Amino acid sequence: MGTIGIPVKLIHEAVGHVITVELKGGAAYRGTLYDAEDNFNIAMKDITVTAPDGKQSHLENVYIRGNMLRFIIVPDMLQQAPMFKRIGPNAMKGRGIGSARGRATVLRAQARRGRGGSSNTSSGGASGSRPPIRR
């Protein structure tokens, strides 16, 4: 699989904090998040449940399947989480971030600068041969 997305990282950062969750059915759960999975299954404790009709009740523990969630409200203090810090322009230097470095991109850049020539010229080389790529 690929990398973990920001929403998944955010829900893991929210473990131990009070969150509010609204379900697809309209019920709202507010309590302390104590476990979260990558598929958004969550476990909460000390929950106040507000039903769609406005009635409130209290639950000790609850486990909510991720596909039942409509949205999650996390504390504002998580805006300061390290994962939201901007990465400087030189932090990822040499790691392939930014402009592409594929063979086609290099050949187009060389053609724009007048290097390499086109393959249909009679100035040497077998047809279809490619100029060497300097790294």
UniProtKB/TrEMBL annotation:
Listed GO MF terms: mRNA binding; RNA binding
Keywords per UniProt: Cytoplasm, mRNA processing, mRNA splicing, Nucleus, Ribonucleoprotein
Cited SUPFAM superfamilies: Sm-like ribonucleoproteins
GO biological process annotation, one example: 7-methylguanosine cap hypermethylation
Database matches in InterPro entries: LSm4/Sm_D1/D3 (IPR027141), LSM_dom_sf (IPR010920), Sm (IPR047575), Sm_dom_euk/arc (IPR001163), SmD3 (IPR034099)
Regions of compositional bias (Low complexity) in chain numbering: 118-135
Pfam family, one: LSM
Record's keyword annotation contains Iron: no
Residue ranges, annotated region (Disordered): 92-135
Localisation per UniProt entry: Cytoplasm, Cytosol; Nucleus
Domain (Sm): residue spans on this chain: 6-78
GO cellular component term of the entry, any: Prp19 complex
PROSITE patterns: SM
Membership in a protein family: Belongs to the snRNP core protein family.
PANTHER family assigned: SMALL NUCLEAR RIBONUCLEOPROTEIN SM
Protein name per UniProt: Small nuclear ribonucleoprotein Sm D3
